[in-house]
Design a protein that fits this description.
The structure is a single chain. A hairpin with a 5-residue loop joins strand 8 and strand 9. The strands form 4 sheets. A 6-stranded mixed β-sheet has the order 10-1-11-15-13-14, sandwiched between helices. The longest helix is centred in the last third of the chain and has 22 residues. The protein is an alpha/beta fold and 404 residues long. Helix 4 packs across helix 9, helix 5 crosses helix 6 and helix 7 crosses helix 9. The protein starts with a strand and ends in a 6-residue tail after the last helix. The protein contains 9 helices and 17 strands.
């Protein structure tokens, strides 16, 4: 099994986001996860997410939308007005993006004939089923033009949008960089980078028509949400989702009277927790343990921590080393300094929930949790080949590593 997460730190539009200040239209947002929030200033931002819309049949369905142009920006304060040596700001009062000018919106609504502020749809008469609304309409809680943009992307009238969950994103696309085009400059490498490698590793392991002829194991990947906020949700790794899936899979082809097939399956399983790792930063080299400084494009990084912030142990390293040898993939090792804090992953919580052997790893990157991160081009290939080899050779190697 390979487990990874798909979420990244971001800013999420508040349930009531409509704001105005000093002639500017602003959007209220709340922080999601532990982002490097100063990197969100002065970026060309937009929104994407899920909208719930009402159909002509009275059903409520979801629509995934992305506004594919810059509509928001969080402006920094000119240095002439505050010469602070360390950039500090209040996340509640100084992290709100601007969406435009009030005057421009008034001109637009005057030209189109649409009201800048819609009349309230909330009434105090609960006996009128058609007119009563427990909450204000989206166009009252948010700027009407933002609701209109969301509706246009969803392909429905504005009045059909009942609610939405929107997050901000940087409109600058990912690109290949570096003098020799050896680097990736992109948002959300943590952890779409390892999610991508795990998906393609699984697909590539099945490229041969005979790939599963002698396979004794089930090849599985599980991509979770909400890792950046603790994983304690229905979609997170701390839920019962993966154990429930494994329990159902474990009874396939087994004796229905055997009550321990689930536990037997876990005892024979191995989980790779795949989450991006820290590359050494040349400007902050002293922050790294001297003998454990992972480099980009030098192979996937095995994460080790004596306090079980990572789930890696020696038998797991032996297994992965043999997997990597067969896939011709270089590996690196990482531990944090004793005087440094250490992040964690979904690995330890899944290891505790499943009781399955687990190892933490990831490709090296810079600027983790920044709005714009940096990774290595060749590490994508290394990670994909490593996972391909893992799926292809695990069943054979599993019985060769004996720990009593």
């Amino acid at each position: 099994m390979i487990g990874a997460h798909t979420d990244s730190p971001t800013l999420r539009v508040k349930p009531v986001s409509s704001k105005q200040a000093e002639g500017f239209i602003q959007v209220g947002v709340e922080t999601y996860g532990g982002g490097l929030w100063h990197t969100w200033f002065d970026r060309d931002l937009s929104i994407a997410g899920r909208a719930m819309v009402k159909t002509d049949k009275g059903e409520y369905i979801k629509k995934l939308v992305r506004i594919n142009r810059p509509i928001l920006r969080i402006p920094s304060l000119a240095i002439h007005l505050d010469r602070q040596e360390t950039f500090t700001f209040n996340k509640e009062t100084q992290l709100f993006p601007i969406a435009g000018l009030v005057a421009a919106e008034l001109n637009r609504t005057r030209d189109t004939g649409k009201p800048a502020t819609p009349e309230s749809s909330t009434t105090c008469d609960p006996s009128s089923e058609d007119s009563f609304s427990p909450l204000k309409a989206p166009a009252e809680r948010h700027h009407p033009y933002i609701v209109e943009l969301i509706a246009n992307e969803a392909g429905v009238p504005s009045g059909s949008v009942v609610d939405f969950e929107m997050v901000l994103y940087d409109t600058q696309e990912a690109c290949i960089g570096g003098l020799n085009e050896e680097l990736i400059f992109s948002a959300r490498l943590d952890n779409l980078g390892m999610s991508y490698c795990s998906i393609h590793g699984l697909i590539n392991s099945l490229s041969s028509p005979s790939a599963l002829e002698n396979e004794r194991s089930i090849r599985l990947i599980s991509l979770f949400d909400h890792e950046e906020i603790g994983s304690n949700t229905a979609q997170g790794a701390d839920s019962n989702f993966l154990p429930a899936v494994i329990r159902r899979l474990s009874i396939i082809g087994s004796d229905s009277d055997d009550q321990t097939v689930y536990e037997q399956a876990l005892a024979k399983s191995f989980l790779v927790s795949a989450d991006m790792a820290h590359s050494v930063n040349p400007n902050y080299a002293s922050k790294y343990e001297p003998d454990h400084k992972p480099e980009m494009n030098k192979g996937t990084v095995i994460k080790v921590n004596a306090n079980a912030r990572y789930a890696t142990n020696s038998p797991g390293i032996v297994l992965l080393q043999e997997v990597a040898r067969r896939g011709h993939v270089p590996l690196q090792l990482f531990v944090v300094r004793n005087d440094s804090s250490c992040g964690s992953t979904i690995g330890p919580m899944l290891a505790a929930a499943l009781g399955a052997r687990t190892l933490d790893l990831g490709n090296a990157q810079l600027s983790m949790h920044s709005i714009r991160e940096t990774g290595g081009v060749y590490d994508v290939d290394y990670g994909t080949k490593l996972f391909e080899s893992f799926f292809e050779h695990f069943s054979e190697l599993e019985s060769m590593i004996i720990v009593d």
